[in-house]
Amino acid sequence: MTHSRARGVYLPRLADAAASSMTTYGIPLLVLGTTNSSSLTGVAFVLAWAPRLCTFALAGTAVDRFGPARVFRLAAAARALVAGLAVPALAMTGAEVAASLVMLLAACAGCLTQFSFIAAESIGGAASREADGAAHRVQSVLLSIDQAAALAGPAAGGLLLQWAGSSGMLAVISGLSLLSAAIAPSARHMPGPTAGNGPAPQGWRTGWSTLRALPPLAWLVGGLALSNLTLGFLEAATPVIVVKELGRSSASVGVVWSCAAAASLLAVAVCRVAIDRWGLSGVGRWAALVTAVPCFLIAHADSYPAYLVLAAVFMAGDSMLAVVLRTLRSHLIPAEVFGSTLSVTVLILLLPYPLAGILMAVVDPAAIRTVITACAVVQAIGLLCAFTRGTRSRPRHGKRR
């Protein structure tokens, strides 16, 4: 059983997560290198995230209708085809056409990544149910895989872009996607299509009404959405700041996010123990402080080491807030409406990313640090409300959690 789980669940998840991580952080670098424009880098960030929002419900419906294994295999194979075709296309076109092709690549990759992500989450959930008493072990392995991909993906993408060019990076993304499609579990080894719980609009209404009836969760989701606006703008602006202002290479951009992923992994491990001792509210307040303070300082960081350290601390605090959200969500949302409410919360948390890309596209490069400061102020206000107004009616969690 362990061998089959490693072959059918862990290895495809690892290959897909690595390809997704390289796509998410590598394509903005590719846009910057192709166009030398911070505005177009922001547009590419929008094009990478907007399809994910538009196809969120569609991906879930496809998984329910056709099964997670089939959707995962098709999405990974399609991403391999798109990235593979982009290699000769970019080599044979001029600068203006290449810029348009890179933008199209960002949109297609974002859409296909959403499908493979939803399908991979469904496959992991099915493996957890089959494991029964060992479900927590399956989830811990899946979480470690995601963190490892987030750690290695940005650095690998930056290095490949620097030493092998856009063709090398896209070829590796295509190869990893093709590998994940080839070793994905077959449909007969996974749960088949299932009937939905009702029409999609009814599910959205149920999720909205449930979220409004849970003020602690609603306030925390709102605060983290504002925090994600700051995070999204930093992700879109980091290539411009590191390459243009600090004079570093594209590989240095990947190192920033790899160090941030390592700090996030450590923060998640610490957060589990801290919640047992100090509870969700106490850890949440400290995490909000750890997230907000570095954001103000990042706007004034004038050296690469300082920027790297502050970004890592910021991401560590953001990961701790994510643990608090997941724990509170599991406490408060009733099981019978968990799926619809989860979809609404994820949509709210993802909406700021394309907004951050639009902001990056319209802002003057000289005003990027001013915008970061403004985002930090908005983030601090949102988190302050989440952990003051949102915790008034929250019961105290015991030592058991």
From TrEMBL:
SUPFAM superfamilies given for it? MFS general substrate transporter
Chief location of this protein within or outside the cell: membrane
Which Pfam family is an annotated match for this chain, by its short name? MFS_1
- Membrane topology annotation: Multi-pass membrane protein
Where located? Cell inner membrane
Does the UniProt entry include the keyword Transport? Answer: yes
- Identify the keywords attached in UniProt to this record, alphabetized: Cell membrane, Membrane, Transmembrane, Transmembrane helix, Transport
User: InterPro entries this protein is in?
Assistant: MFS, MFS_trans_sf
Which parts form a coiled-coil structure per UniProt?
none
Instruction: Give TM segment ranges.
Output: 71-91, 97-120, 167-184, 213-234, 254-275, 282-300, 306-325, 337-360, 366-387
Any one GO molecular function term: transmembrane transporter activity
GO cellular component entries: plasma membrane
In the UniProt record, does the keyword Transmembrane helix occur? yes
Q: Which PANTHER family match?
A: ENTEROBACTIN EXPORTER ENTS, INTEGRAL MEMBRANE EFFLUX PROTEIN-RELATED
- Identify this protein by name: MFS transporter
Lineage per the UniProt record: Bacteria, Bacillati, Actinomycetota, Actinomycetes, Kitasatosporales
